Amino acid sequence: MMNGLDFRRLRRWELALAAFALSAPFALPLLAPGAPSLMRPAMAQGLEQPDVSRIVSVGGAITEIIYALGEESRLVGRDSTSTYPEAARKLPDVGYMRQLAPEGIIAVNPTAIVAIEGSGPPEALAVLKEANIPFTSIAETYDRDGILAKIRAVGTFLGVKDKAEALAQTVEKDLDAAVAVSAGRPEGERKRILFILSTQGGKIMASGTGTAANGIIELAGAVNAASTFPGYKALTEEAIVEAKPDVILMMDRGGRHAASPDELFALPALSLTPAAKSKALIRMDGLHLLGFGPRTASAIRELNAAIYGKKPNASQ
Predict the structure, then answer these.
(1) What CA–CA distance (Å, rounded) separates 221 from 218?
(2) Are 259 and 227 in contact (CB under 8 A)?
(3) DSSP per-residue string spanning the chain
(4) Could you give the CA distance from residue 165 to residue 28 in angstroms, rounded to a whole number?
(5) Largest Cα–Cα distance of the chain, in whole Å?
(6) CB of 279 within 8 A of CB of 246?
(7) Phi, psi of 182, deg, nearest 5
């Protein structure tokens, strides 16, 4: 034994890591959630009941669910999107969910890994598979039912189905109440929201359909102004003008996203939009807004109030 690791297993990990290092420069772009993935063949490594005493959690919502279930003592690592609750930040960071560092995961000696669908890259997953670390993927959909399914799936993975069902029922009740308020707004009164991922180089990277941004906009009783394409896309000035957004929505983070409304709406692509006239800009914490985890009902209420005012109902 060496630092709690089996020596023979370690040698195999080393070989796998060497293969990863050689192949990493040729990595293919990661597939989006919902697309075919190398994740599922790596699930559980043939172990129906993996040892879940030492877990690495990948995906902010997955980590939140583990904490909400009161099972955080099992965690020995997390990815960089797992920033809530604050205690999660103290865990070893194994990298961004789409750019996982297998050596970082192996270093914390996990007995199992649980990850949100779409994590990768495939080369990193292949290394973890070679290392015989049980790997479970949790499906991701950006809607009410997807949140509840994630909670139950994580509970099943941890062997705490009863606790997961109780949490799912609580979250379901909260979600239904939040969505009911949003759903009560007449279609003609719903504002058009443009979610901007980045403005690097003056180019507007916006969210289309099939994204977390699209899902939360709809749940908050608004309309995605860029619903003519799937995923994320850099929009032309003409496309943004045609989208006619009433409000710009962004994640609250540093860099270009910290630009003031004046600076943002001075960009040619945004200056002619209805949102620019009133400088309607909403910024929210990225994980809270887009995580689709236990706190999503709160995010729906917060976004609805930011768009329509403190009383999000049809009488405003």
Answers:
(1) 5
(2) no
(3) -BTTB-HHHHHHHHHHHHHHHHHGGGPPPPPPTTS--STGGGBGGG-SS---SSEEEESHHHHHHHHHTT-GGGEEEE-TT---SGGGGGSPB---TTS--HHHHHHT--SEEEEETT---HHHHHHHHHTT--EEEE---SSHHHHHHHHHHHHHHHT-HHHHHHHHHHHHHHHHHHHHHHHTS-GGGPPEEEEEEE-GGG-EEEE-BSSHHHHHHHHTT-EES--SSBSEEEEPHHHHHHH--SEEEEE--SGGGG--HHHHHTSHHHHTSHHHHHT-EEEE-HHHHH--STTHHHHHHHHHHHHH-SS-STT-
(4) 38
(5) 69
(6) no
(7) -65, -40
Q: Which two tokens stand for residue 306?
A: 């930011």
- The residues, ordered by sequence, that sit 6+ positions from 311 with a Cβ below 8 Å of its Cβ are none
Cβ atoms 164, 154 nearer than 8 A: yes
Alpha-carbon gap, residue 248 to 181, rounded angstroms: 22
- Pick left, alpha or beta for residue 145 (phi over 0 → left; psi -120 to 50 → alpha; otherwise beta): alpha
Measured CA to CA, the distance from residue 87 to residue 72 in angstroms comes to: 9
pLDDT digits (tens, 9 = 90+) for 23-59: 444 433 333 444 333 333 334 444 467 999 999 999 9
The token pair that represents 265 in the structure block: 């709406």
Q: Which two tokens stand for residue 56?
A: 């690495």
Judged on CB neighbours under 10 Å (0-12, 13-18, 19+), 142 is buried
| Amino acid identity for residue 185 in this structure | R
Tell me, what's the pLDDT at 79? Answer: 97
50-101, pLDDT tens digit by residue? 999 999 999 999 999 999 999 999 999 999 999 999 999 999 999 999 999 9
Tally of CB atoms within 10 A around 228: 12
98 vs 118: CA distance, rounded Å:
7
Distance CA 262, CA 250 (A): 15
